[in-house]
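Handout, section 4.2: multi-component inputs.
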Amino acid sequence: MAHIELKGITKTFGDHVALKDLSFEIADGEFFVLLGETGAGKTTTLRLIAGLEKPTGGQIFIDGEDVADWGAAERDVALVLQQYSLYPRYTVRENLEFPLKSRIRRVEPAEIEERVARAAKTLRIEHLLDRKTDRLSGGEMQRVSIGRAIVRKPRVFLMDEPLSALDAKLREALRTELKNLQMNLGATFLFVTHDQIEAMSMGDKIGVLNNGQLVQTGTPQEIYRNPVNTFVARAVGSPPMNLISGRLAGSEAIADEGYRLPFDAALGTAVDARPLTFGIRPEDLFLESGAPGEARVHDVENHGVEKIVTLRTGNHFLQATVPAHTDLEIEETVRFSWDPGKVVLFDGESGISLRHAG
Ligand SMILES: Nc1ncnc2c1ncn2[C@@H]1O[C@H](COP(=O)(O)OP(=O)(O)OP(=O)(O)O)[C@@H](O)[C@H]1O
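Output:
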């Protein structure tokens, strides 16, 4: 399989900068997810690695070799797209065989048969092999597209939002399957998505891309617990991290809305009166009679095992996850607090985490 490295990659289209000084590494056999909103530069990154586009600046290495002069075929990467690029009048089997029948590859017929059979088994599409691909469901078509990548035994799998056209249930099932597949193949995967749940549930590592720049790279846990700035804090987690503007006074955090919550002084040295943003995950905010904060219940969403409560304090909204059996009335007054050990401190102006700012 393969190790990938991007070093200082820049890509401009006319005077539009799509990628700015992008550097990251994907270890051999790693499932790396690039997470970003629409237009962040995800597809451009994949196309550069695949050799379909040339960088304006910077270098790409595959297994330590600079691939600047390598064409797309030499790079030996497989690209799986959101839209299935299958031949509609061919059968599933013919679609799977096709990438192996090119003259450059020269794969023996017996080997083709074996690889197709193995891919079909892995993806559980054996029963569909003789069906025309225009008679398949969306999920089946996407399995065949992935199968076309697998049979080639590429060095790297590049996946461009391959699940986003599928309905929620199927997406969830294929998420698990794809992750299992990657582990079984021991393959290097670069998977791009705008869906943070996909990123969190599938990635060994996540790179958060914003406006063509990589904002943070880390394990899902690192990014969730210790976001570098308020942008990343809001980009991962559902509901997202609560951000509360305020300042510190000794062992208390004073929110701009006026309420005071306990603060663990060991967490931050910034005890001066400068503006801060306190980040707290919804599961670390709790309702309790007698707690120091006061809010109104603005909304309650029932999610089966838990409820997501939106609280209103002045003009500000906070979200907390509470057990499903918690009874709450809209507009009811409740008391709340947080787990002081879980608060992340951000600079109130730049939004940069004080831990990361050093
Ligand atoms: N061939 C091109 N010519 C001009 N601009 C381009 C071209 N390809 C991409 N761009 C621009 O570069 C930026 C990054 O595009 P890219 O497709 O990589 O984003 P993305 O993160 O994949 O978005 P999406 O999730 O919508 O696919 C966008 O502003 C896009 O308009």
